[in-house]
Design brief:
10 helices; transmembrane; VTT_dom; mainly alpha
Length: 218
Amino acid sequence: MPSSPCCQRVVVPIIDWQSRTFSRPVILLICFGAIALFPSVLIPSSPFMWIAGMTFGYGYGFMIITTAMSIGMSLPFCIGSAFHSRIHRWLEKWPKKAAFVRLAGEGDWFHQFRAVALLRISPFPYIVFNYASVATNVKYCPYIVGSMAGTIHETLLAIYSGKLVQSLAAATSQGSFLSVDQIIYNGIGFAVAAVSTAAITIYAKKALQKLQAEDELC
């Protein structure tokens, strides 16, 4: 399976430059800092999750990403608390989305945990929810626990994507082709990841709608 021109001209040089320029501890600090701080200024940190996956694999990569993400979700929650009324007015411009967000602040601890986890799994923008959540009455503990539970699949998918890009880049840099075993392994892995993500997202949307219907009846 030949590599794409994009992989050869863009991805491989970037990976080579990264490996030549930075040591593993420096890459750790860069990735951790970006994943922890970028969400506070509304900048996506997904590329750094891929790099963490490429460099540290599933074990250490997962620990690095989840720890940094916990900070990245906590900082906007704390910062947004100072602008509670302003965020509340902003949400009123989108009543349908606001109705789902407000589910996170209703009910007991488990209800809030479940609502936050489902919102994290659903297509609702990750960075936006970090701030939007403070417009509800959600407590920090169910917010952060639900957020961590709801982003596990996203973290694993980011690590897998990083490892997949790394394997394609390695084959390209060596001027070789992926073996049949590698093609089958990567193809099955990508299919499983895509189907799992779609299934989880559909489940989350239906569960949120059911949760909203239950709250309207109460």
